[in-house]
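pasting Elongation factor G for the record, 674 residues
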Amino acid sequence: MALLGASGAGKTTLVEELLHQAGVLTRPGRVEDGSTVSDHEPEEVARGISLGLGVAPFPWKAPDGLTYDVTLLDTPGSADFAGAVDAGLAAADLALLVVSAVDGVQAGTHAAWRLAADAGLPVVVVVTKEDKARADFRHVLADLREAFGDGFVPLELPLGEESAFTGVADVLTEEGLAYDKDGHHHTEPLPDGVAEEEHRLHDEVTEEIVAHDDEQLERYLAGDVPTAAELERTLAHEVEDREAFPVLVVSGVTGVGVDRLADLLCELSPDPADRTARVLAGSTVVEVAADPAGPVLVHAFRTLADPFVGQVTLVRVLSGTLRPGDRLVNTATKTDERVPGLFRLRGKEHLPVDAVPAGHVAAVAKLTGTPSGSLLADRTGPGASMTAVPPRVRPPVYGLCLEPVTQSDDDRLSAALGRLVAEDVTLSVDRSSDKTVLRGLGDTHLAVALERLARVFGVHVSTSPVPVGYRETIRKPVEAEGKVKKQSGGHGQYAVVQLRVSPLPHGSGFEFVDKVVGGAIPRSYLPAVQRGVVEAMEHGGPHGYPVVDLRVEVYDGKSHSVDSSDMAFRTAAATGVKEALAAAGTVVLEPVSHVSVVVPTAVQGDVMSDLSSRRGRITATASLDDGTVRIEASVPQAELSRYVLDLRSITGGRAELVMSPDRFEVCPDHLVPA
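structre below
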């Protein structure tokens, strides 16, 4: 199950207490001390927040007498690390939406809810930090219903709040559960102040649950009230169908409610054996049953760079049983892979296992030909022709130029960046110019990536803002002559080129036209003339920017039977273009991006005003069904270097941003960089 929610909601602290109550830890770690299981990377310890996908399996003996194998996938709450959330959801059977009783529904809560809905996952809500000052469970419940609609089923009420939070009222059994300092509970009568509210809520919840089961509803209307066990079984089906979303209340610090949370998760969560995985057979979506006896099909959902064992791939077995020594084929890269050994991760701890049946999560080292989001299958089985459903695309919105500190760093930079991108698919590397640009989802995202680049791969770089890709084009048509005349003994250099240079419409590129007649320039030299023109354009115009949208017509020239050469005509053509640009003058073109922003309607005006202040032109707006609005605009790239950070500030983090290059436009003279 994937733990989702806003940053600081208490996900990691809750994981620690669950592991402690399960007997895996003798004492829970603390985020403040950097001692938690799931936040073990130095970058996480330094910042006190989750930055990657933490894995924490534990066994739990439930009230039904069975021992369940539970795997928690602790995801980051920061939007900069949404790629880890996507990976966790790709492997989960249930989303555990963690909401702070102090802060209530936040921007991260909205994002998590939307992602779980997009993934089609059942959701259980757990309200944490009920022991903190200003905790208000009832207010949070009202916020959830206001933000996301009906279907929330509170199964508990807190007994006391803030420092007086000492137990929970079980809504289904109408019992009070009081907790001791070790996190263990015992049954006691409900306090008078809670009993009436709890009984009213019991009736509401019972009606809500039976309303989705015709047989049970008929019995209820006839006066046959279902037992708590019957209600739980019915609720479990509603949870799986996303018709109901149970709400529980805990404190990850004091342990109140945590053991009951684990019990209910085991009882209400869908059985992985009953869930099917969706993959692609060609372009058709097919469902794969989680059959441990079936052909092996494995989904690699996350790649990690371990400084000791190298690449570690987190996998979920969709079908069959995975064993050490298995030979499989990656269905995307067609690479043959051997599984050297299997283990389960618990934070940074490796727990060896002999086999991993369908529905379970494990880890494999050194699968070098298996990127995140791909499948491994038996070469001769039906899975060999299947591919994974493509993961959610998150276009980068923030970039930095990288400059290696030493030659050794330069030599290793490309390989190290390749491994970083393999680990985090929301990172991308752009080498379209003479600079290396790393792009991602925000400033913290890139800062962490560069820290890992230095710590894990030993590559150190300095950074600078990504320069705006200005261009130049000629202002008006002009004729120019380029010549080379040099005689210094032996073969000289001689070439004369007559050019007509004129602007083309924006976005047209470059056009070279041969209008030479009478053999004034031998045809064998014309390719050299064209190369000289292109080199001059790349070298830049009077402002120093590459020249585009140019039509160059060569109509006359002179040559010498002995002293002319490719080099002479190449140099003469470049000289002619430079003279033409200097004589006619140039205009600077600035890149313009298409910006699409989805924000709450309440901040639409603020966002549009901010875009206008950035010289943006609003091209369209559209209201969406979920109470948000999509704003589309054309904005100069020079105004967007830190836009994602400013947008999050304006919207409180509730914004989705996509930026893509669109076109070039003339830059106002007063804004041309000196």
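The longest helix spans residues 192-210.
The chain has five domains: 2-268, 276-388, 398-465, 472-584, 589-666.
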